[in-house]
Amino acid sequence: MIVITEPNITDERIKEITIHIEKAGVQAHVSRGTDRTVIGIIGSAAPTLAEHLRQMKGVENVIKISKSYKLASRDFHPDDTIIDIKGVKIGGDNLVIMGGPCAVESPEQIDEIARLVKAAGGQVLRGGAFKPRTGPYSFQGVGVEGLAMMTEAGKKHGLLTITEVMTPEYVDICSEYADILQVGTRNMQNFDLLRKLGTVQTPVLLKRGFSSTYDEFLNAAEYILAGGNPNVMLCERGIRTFEAYTRNTLDLAAIPVLQSLSHLPVISDPSHGTGRRELVEPMSKASLAAGANGMIIEMHTDPDNSMTGDGVQSLFPDQFAKLLRELEQLAPLLGKQFNTEKQPPSAFVEWKK
Q1: Which of 52-56, 133-137, 254-258, 269-273 is the least confident region?
Q2: pLDDT greater than 60 at residue 137
Q3: Which domains does the chain have, with CATH numbers?
Q4: Residue 139's pLDDT is what?
Q5: What is the C-alpha to C-alpha distance for residues 116 and 157, in angstroms, rounded to an integer?
Q6: Fewer Cβ atoms within 10 A, N terminus or C terminus of the chain?
Q7: CA 76, CA 30: separation in Å to the nearest integer?
Q8: Residue 144: burial class (beta carbons within 10 Å; 0-12, 13-18, 19+)
Q9: Long-range Cβ contacts of 156-159 (<8 Å, 24+ apart)
């Protein structure tokens, strides 16, 4: 259940209410909105607790939340969550673009791609150092060395960085290098990993499992939130259906549905969502129209020779730049702010030489 406080309640009074809640053997999570503060109660409380709270000074109402996810629910946090990472705001009316290769391959490769992502107007450099692959003989990534390469490239070109973390043991070291930790579709219900991610404050991009429902997805986010990490983004990356023409089926309806159910930012992944380069541009625009807070898009300077074999869904740098220019033009028409630096005119001629 949640406790809704009266307007202009003091911090001291909020503290008194949370102490009363915790004395009942449950957890209290405070969420401050524009008009009111909401206190979420996590755990099995005695039926009398709600009535006691209603009688406390400063409490306007106590409401039971029937959903299995509490902290991820918009009932608990009516306002959009905006995650501020070194000045880059993700959520609300902001549109953020994360771009880069599926995997870090070499210092030269990731440095050149970082330069091009920045020139196009991207804010976050993506790149995998540890790659979960379907086949055991596929390229698995270059490990911690790749993290260092990407971090250096991101700092050099003024970009945040995002990388996938696969096991609880690597959460701390990945947090040292990357600004955002990504949980891949295969790990959405790796509950040990989710619990560990709840113990750090590094923002997490949680990808939807390729066969998961919205409730299952939001309950996975709940594990991270309940552990104490409020910085969670949801990512729609396509689900498995009977259609074989595309790699996955990008569920565009998930974007407005998740935003109605949850306050967390929703990011779209049109690259994995389709698996086809020619579909990334239209699905990125469709994601923006559906209300996405950003996109994570694969881009590579030599997609045909990508070490992961995912080049078929990676944009060339000039395609990436063109797409971002068009998204920048569309964003204001759809109520989004695309805060980006202008690209140098020669940036996308040089990469071909």
Answers
A1: 133-137
A2: no
A3: 2-63 (3.30.70.1140), 83-350 (3.20.20.70)
A4: 43
A5: 9
A6: C
A7: 9
A8: middle
A9: 156/111, 156/114, 157/111, 157/114, 157/115, 157/117, 157/118, 157/125, 158/118, 159/114, 159/117, 159/118, 159/122, 159/123, 159/124, 159/125
Cα–Cα dist 147/288, whole Å: 30
For the chain, the 3-state helix, strand and coil shares in percent, each to the nearest 5, are 40, 20, 40
Question: What does the CA dihedral 133, 186, 90, 14 come to, rounded to 10 degrees?
Answer: -150
Taking the C-alpha atoms of residue 77 and residue 314, their distance in angstroms, rounded to an integer, is 36
pLDDT, position 348: 57
What is the C-alpha to C-alpha distance for residues 254 and 145, in angstroms, rounded to an integer? 36
Say how many CA atoms lie within 13 Å of 198 toward its Cβ: 16
- What's the CA gap between 17 and 23, in Å, rounded? 10
Beta bridge partners of 83: 90
> Is the separation of the CB atoms in 142 and 129 below 8 Å?
yes
Lookup: tokens for 22: 């915790």
CA separation for the pair 254, 262 (Å, rounded): 11
pLDDT tens for each residue of 170-207: 999 999 999 999 999 999 999 999 999 999 999 999 99
Instruction: Report in angstroms the alpha-carbon separations of 140 from 4, 137, 164, 309.
Output: 48, 8, 12, 11
CA 21 to CA 73: how far, in whole Å?
20
Roughly what angle, to the nearest 10 degrees, separates helices 254-261 and 214-226?
Answer: 50
Please tell me the distance from the alpha carbon of residue 328 to that of residue 316, in angstroms, as a whole number: 18
pLDDT at 50: 87
C-beta of residue 316 within 8 angstroms of C-beta of residue 349: no
Return all residues near 341 (Cβ < 8 A) that are at least 6 apart: 118, 121
